[in-house]
Amino acid sequence: MKLRCIIVDDESLARKYVAELVAQVPFLELVKTCKNAFEAIEVLQQESIDLMFLDIQMPGMLGTTLLSGLRDRPMVIFITAYSNYAVESYELDVIDYLMKPVSSERFMKACIKAIEAKQKVKGTAEFPTTEGVEPKPPDYFFVNVEYALVRVSIPEITHVEGMKDYVKIYLHNQTKPVITKMTLKSIEEKLRDFPFFRVHKSFIVNLDRIESIRNQEITIGTHEIPISDSNIKDLMRLLQSSDS
Fold this sequence. Notes:
Order of helices and strands: EHEHEHEHEHEEEEEHEEEEEH
Strand content: 25-35%
Shape: elongated
Distance between the termini: 46 Å
Helix content: 25-40%
Low-confidence stretches: 124-130
CATH topology of the largest domain: Rossmann fold
Radius of gyration: 21 Å
Number of helices: 7
CATH architecture of the largest domain: 3-Layer(aba) Sandwich
Number of strands: 15
Largest sheet: 5 strands, parallel
């Protein structure tokens, strides 16, 4: 079974990112991407759509307004940067409510809910599981920076510095870091499938970008990054195993 879906978002980067997530889910078929609610209405009138990935804050018409006005509704997964519509969204009986930037794992869970709901309506019992359809971790992610989604290439990250509720993401050949509201723990989760190591309570480093280590400090370009006493042995063991 395939779910025919559309993406509705006024931000081109967001549409592209969700389209890439859709491409990783075997049971999704992307029919169209729409930059506003009016384009979505046109598609819904012309095509048979099972699932709509819908932004909420869009110029011209809110996603919640679009959904409220539809007589024959497809299943809906909201993908938004705003949490204050959550209660209203569930009153509209949506499948899920995802916060930007959404991870591939969280996206897959929402899609599993959608196809299970579709199969339940059709009376089939072949519910899919995440086994064998887990998406390959993308080598990038998006972060919110001044009300915009900014794409961050994971291999280009040299190191990450935590500052309470914010992080500075330093990139190769980029003078200024990307600053976003995010915890160091949450970004550590995004980097877990790549050669990164938390060398200090406030720093994560890309092991492939380390230039030298001296006096319990890592040098990457012009940056000197401290290594905590509790992490120095694990770091050296990790570096030695990667050389063997």
